[in-house]
Amino acid sequence: MKSSFISAKQKGFSLVELMVAALLGLVLLGGVIQLFLGSNENYRMQDELASIQEDGRFALMFLNEQIEMAGWTDPSSSQVVSAIDFGNSADGLNDTIAMSYVRAIDGVNNLDCNGNVVLNGIVTNQFSVNADNELVCRGMGAGGVAQPLISGVSSFQVLYGVETELVCPDGVVDRYMTRDEVNAAGLTGNVMAVRVSLLLNSGEEILAENLTDQFQVADQNLNFNDRRVRRLFQETVFMPNSAYNILVNSDAAVKCMSGF
User: Fold this and answer.
1) Range 188-215 average pLDDT
2) Within 13 A of 117's CA, how many CA atoms are on the CB side?
3) Any stretches that span the bilayer, and where are they (predicted)?
4) Distances (CA, A) of 154 to 129, 205, 210
5) pTM for the structure as a whole
6) Residue-level pLDDT at 154
């Protein structure tokens, strides 16, 4: 009796019980792995979005500063330049814009966007997108190599706010046009504002599946179908120096304002 009682108490699990326990363990482990993968994907998504936001804000801040400065002439200089250098600007899959201004020749302020000293004081900085989808800036005066500002650029588009009134300009933007349209209309000297559109992407494919998305980037309608995340940044910047030159240096404007 004693022997059979001990044998019954020491009886182990059956094969079915072990298989059920293993299955439950696998289910729990799968849930933990799925939770980990979801958290990791969410972290990557948030990290990429934060990087895109930071790059977008930086690029617009940099471009804003250059656009507002365009057309400026330092009081110590008698040189005058056009705000937009249309000869070094272009329309395309990604646009190119070059802006000029005059700084005092002091070795401190007469620096281009690459940090090079411009000896004649006429600073011209050209912004474009290179083959690596980076927004770059090249100081035209120094003939330097373009330096990258941000990466992951899907599209960079520029429209020019133009005063179309040639007889009696009133200093108000009448129409936004592409570089080629402004050039064809003979209004290169009447640009008073610049509208910049910058579409940035995550670089890496971080979405679980392809996403079909559409963006209106300035004058272009773009479609995408991939696993990248994109955000559009746009800003319209008024050019006070250009507007001042149009109104003050225009004989027609003076006559109109005088009533003659």
Assistant:
1) 90
2) 6
3) 12-37
4) 9, 14, 16
5) 0.80
6) 96
